[in-house]
Amino acid sequence: MIRTVLILILSSSLLLPACRRTRSFYEPGVSLKLAQYRSKHISEVHYDLWFNISANQAEPVTGKAIIHFRQLKSLHGVNLDFQPGAEFIHEVLVNGQVSDYNFMNQHILIPSDHITPGKNKIEVAFTSSDQALNRSADFMYTLFVPDRASTAFPCFDQPDLKATYNLSLEIPESWTSLSNGPLIEEQTGDGRKTMQFKMQKPISTYLFAFAAGKFQSLEQIHNGKSITMLHRETDQKKLDLNAGRIFRQHFESLAWLEDYTGIPYPYEKFDIVIIPGFQYSGMEHPGAIWYRDERLLLDESAPLMQQLRKASLIAHETAHMWFGNLVSIKWFNDVWLKEVFAGFMADKMIAPQFPEINHELQFTLTHYPQAYSIERSSGTHPIRQELANMNMAGTLYGPIIYNKAPIIFRQLEEIMQADNFRAAVQEYLQKFSHANAGWDDLATIFDRHSENNISLWSKAWVYGKGMPVIDYEVEIVQQTQVKSLHIKQMNQPPMNPFPAQLLSVDMIYLAGTMVQDIWFDATELLIPTPDGKRSPLLVVLNGGGKGYGYFAPTEQDKAYIARTMGKIPDENLRAAIFLNLYEDFLNAGQGREEYAGLLLSALQHETNPQLINYLCGNLKTLSRNFLDPGKHAAIIADAEKLLWEKLNDAAPESRQVFFDTWLYLAIGPESLENMLGLYNKKIEIPGFGMSETNQTLLACEIALRSKNGKEILENELQRIENPDRKRRLAFIKQALSDEQTERDMFFERLKKPENRNPEPWVLEALNYLHHPLREGASQKYVAGSLEMLEEIQITGDIFFSKNWLDATLGNYQNAEVAHIVNQYLESHPGLPKNLRLKVLQSADLIFRHNSF
Asked: CA 60, 66, 72, 77 torsion: positive or negative?
């Protein structure tokens, strides 16, 4: 206590001569003002880092950092970021001299008289916190995005102070390791191993990474390029099935990007690590991409959509080597920019790999539903958000940047024309190579390559928020002939420019479909129709999925769709219709019984696996959030029956999604018998292999429904051979227990941050804890889960707070939970804005159900 008080007194005295405008320099985290000051005055940063890592998780990781940099002037000294605290610092030397530094609010404060204009060197001996080191019994990996590098070592933890790195890791002799740069030296002795890496190209602190542990290694060389893959997979058949495709898809992505950008791969090496329980699907560290194991190591029965997502993930992370790494963002308010480029390029890259797929349809189904899920809620926000401090950067991620932004970029490419768009992108990458740039820098380049004012057009889309609501009327003359189509935007957010966009209007007649592409740049637009045309049977304003907004179908439209379900040949048009019906249902344009009938009819007739996947997702949402098991028992029974039939007779590429959906919805005794029959191999589905993943999933779902759940889970644990998958099920089964006291104890343990890892396992367990079949017993956890939100944002990784909310709230529909959410928001007026928005997003379907 005395030391803390003394530090605070010294720090306060340090502040006085520094003038009030620098007060934000000393806030916890990295304030925008501090980042801007350091970016202006500090350059040529280089880190020499050494870490000592024990196989014993209880033994802290110790280290030493030597930080070289050039300082323009020394007026305010130097602020180094180090989150663990003063007690984790053992010694500080500045330019070879012991420093009488101060520590305040996660910063090591070096007095100005220790710093000289020009080159400086700061040496710090420290102990790391484990927060971003992700330590397990026999492996570990770092994850520093967006502001977690400073939890492990002292640094300038902001994206626009790029640095080069020398890294030395001392690890157990039986371990191996990998980092951004190539391995330059390895020494062993006395049961220990030292591995040294050198990263010569500058990268942001959030992109610096290393992994170490008991991994197996595979390597493949193609056209002079080498990729090393570290993994922990023990199933040789699964490894053999996937490894070749993983290497091939990375090599193909690299070749495509080099061709599109005109820039060779910009780093010295390209390696990957496949990690059990990794928090994200992937993370794009230069030269060292991390992937979650289940995203890349697929089962033999993996459906086409899962294979497509795998290829898209590989393309996305590889694209980041140019978009986000070679050219990095200045500040995390532009995090959307690196993500939209990676996603947009990935969509282009995977098309040649899957010629059998309708990629226009895939773009629509990948991006629009996810973007709409946020935009229709009261928790929506602009693509480009404000950020005052790096400690809130993790709250900026979500479907708006991953899904709405690519939709806008596709419109942008069409407005500019593809060749001009590509030329602008190439100029952007060349101009800012190994440096930093923001949206304004890119928009200026786009303007030079377009006849349109892209900066002005983009303001509505990048800085505005919400879904346009677009309606139409048919103007009739002489009783039956159509004079024009009157299109009108019904909502116009104040203070935002009009969100001009390209629409493809489909008008369906008995004789065929008339398609008209329009530029919708005003609140109202009249489209003349050909002379003599009668009123169309159906009008779809977002035909082919082109068009962003809520396009409410008329009663005539819905009647025609119901009559012709299964008879509309155009897949892209069907996708637009299904999107519009779903949004219409959620906006109370039709009752749940009516929508359920349309949805089951669509699933009965649909043969396209992409559309089946989308419709099954909607069926799960309908069942979970809008259907009452008592009142709507007949609908649920019809859905169970249909899904079981489809599982047995659908095309092979769609059986997995029918299986997953059936497992989720099934509540009848006959379905439980079928589950047990499948698990015990007394029932077989022709052409559908019961993989280990499906076997474990079955065991978990049976445990929710059967009195013998504990026995089945114990048997499943014995059956699993892979140690990581065994640990996963052992963790999850606590939430599946049929004993309420055991589930209560599990939830209590989640209140401690150290028990909330690995995050994907926590979320899976949380979904089981709040499963609709246990709604009555689990509702009591909701208030406690909300109370943990702010701490989870601080201690968890970037997607965890939103995923925690989704797992907590996503399975409920009753008014009591809506009241708990409202009560939480009312009693927490100081809740950070972005977290408040996430609560509103996750609770949106509960609110909608109770407003119907």
From this structure: positive
